[in-house]
Structure formats: C-alpha cells, structure tokens
Amino acid sequence: MRVCVPAAVLVLSFLPLSAFAGDWTQFRGPGGLGVSDEKSTPVKWSSTENIAWQVELPGPGASCPIAVKDRVYLTCYTGYGLEGNVGEQKDLRRHLLCFERGTGKVLWKKEFEPKLPEHQYQGEGAYHGYAASTPATDGERLYVFFGKSGVYCFDLDGKELWHVSVGEGLNGWGSGCSPILHGGLLIINASIESGSLVALDKLTGAEVWRQKDIRSAWNTPVVVAGKERAELIVSTEPRLLSFDANDGRPLWNADGVCRPRRSRVRDRRRTYVGGRALWRIGRRDGIAHGVARGEGLQRRFADLPRRTSLLGA
Length: 313
Prior knowledge:
With 313 residues, the protein is mainly beta. The chain has two domains: 1-214, Lipocalin; 216-313, Thrombin, subunit H, CATH 2.40.10.480. It is built from two helices and 22 strands. The chain has a four-stranded antiparallel β-sheet, with no helix packed on it. The chain has a four-stranded antiparallel β-sheet with strand order 7-8-9-10, with no helix packed on it. A four-stranded antiparallel β-sheet has the order 11-12-13-14. A hairpin with a 3-residue loop joins strand 16 (230-235) and strand 17. The radius of gyration is 19 Å and the shape is globular. Residues 1-6, 275-279 and 285-308 have low confidence and may be disordered.
C-alpha cells in the first residue's frame, strides 16, 4: 500500500491474505526515501482490479496514509476549503481516522477545531487544503502536525497524550511539512509557523532544541545516520542546511542549490537534491556538484517538474 489520497476516498491495494505489507510509518516511508522492500506487490490498479477495500472519508486531504501493524491512519478536513472563496473558516474541522488494515473498518476518529485565522482557500492557498502533513508513528504513539494549531501525540487507540504549539505564523500557501522521528525526538519543520526547526521530546512534547532562521523551507527534513553522527538535512532557499540531529548544532550548508522544494534522497556518502537542476552534495564538506557538468546540467535538468520528489533506489 503506497497511495496518497487528495480526494475523499481511501483505497487499499491488494495484499496477500497471509500477511500485511511492511509498516509505512512516516512521509515517504522508512528513512523518507520513498522506497519499500516489499516484493510481489501489484503494479496495476483500476476501480476494480487489485483493490482490497475502499472507504469514503469525511472530506479531502493531501496527506498520505501511514500503516503500522494492523492499522492505517489518515488525516482529512471538512467544513471549509472545499471550493474557492466559498464558506467560512469558523466551520473548518480537521479529522484523524484509524482504520482496520484488513477490512477498512473505522476503529476510531478524532475531530479538531483549528486555531484561527488560517490561510485563505484561494489562489495558491488552494493547492493542498488543510490536512497536508502526513502523520508519523514509532509503533507505540501517533504524531500529527496541524500547522499553527499545533502538534498532537496520541496512543494508537486514540487517547491524546500531549499537544504543543511550535508557532502561530501563516503563509498564503498554507502549511504542509510532515513530522519525522529520530531516536527520542520528534522533529518539526516549523518554517511557516515560527521560522524554526523544532525538536520535541516524543514522550512529553517538551522542546529539546530549536534552530531559528529557517525560511522558505517547503519540505520535510531527512535524517542521515552515519558512523560519526546523525545529520538532519533540510532544503531552504537558496541553500541546503545540515544540523546535528541530536542537538541542532549547525554542521554545513551548500549554497547555490536553487529553489529546492523537493524532498531529498541519500546514499551512504551523499545527499541528492533537485531544484531547477539536480545536485549531489558531499555530506562531509557540503560542497554541491552538478550530476551533469556545465551547460549540460542545465540543459538536462532545467525542466524538472517544480514539486516532484526524488526516488532512491
């Protein structure tokens, strides 16, 4: 199951009856790479082919479902932002739903009243609505980010454990970065809400560290674990930044990586990021190199789609 659902329907593709596919616990799956180790999964779908079940949702959402053990979790929204320049923000509600993975049965659901005002649902503010951040889980707790309305933690049965704010800023494009986990930390790109990267204690919600001056960072960070340290890498405009994931200490930056809105991928030695070209970053020195050199780089990659994500293989 690897489906992002912007419409108000959740679809689960066919899985062998003997076992579920592996857990998909955050945005873009394990390590944020968008890669699964599953074998013999379907490669073709239709409204009737390779569909195990489908259920209607209360409303739309641009987040992706996550799956852990025998459950699927997803966010969506209702009441406002369904049509441009229609309705009132006071009617906006966000929803968190838990489904039985094998059948699609709703096990529990939560409704959230937002902190207003929110961004207007018009123009560029209508790109993804009000439920764009994908939840994350460590297998015991569930973490959800709703922009200026805050970060929530639940147990897997829907009991709220804590709720904290990471800032109350707004942007006309809305908020869409997803939470990620590293060890005992829950890390939030709150570029919109407070111009910060914020690391919270995943058990209590207490702030562990905060790195400020994170501007125009339209992406979910990725953690790269090496022999000596774990790096947290985030794209801003016009540079790529690396921090120690444990304490937020700055490590390096790669200037000149223009408009890197996409998520990054990495191997053991390098990070790859797409902007208006495709770049390879040496993680020890932060030096950016074009995958193709000179004018060939621009000719080959200048027409990359603006908001796609790279795929590691």
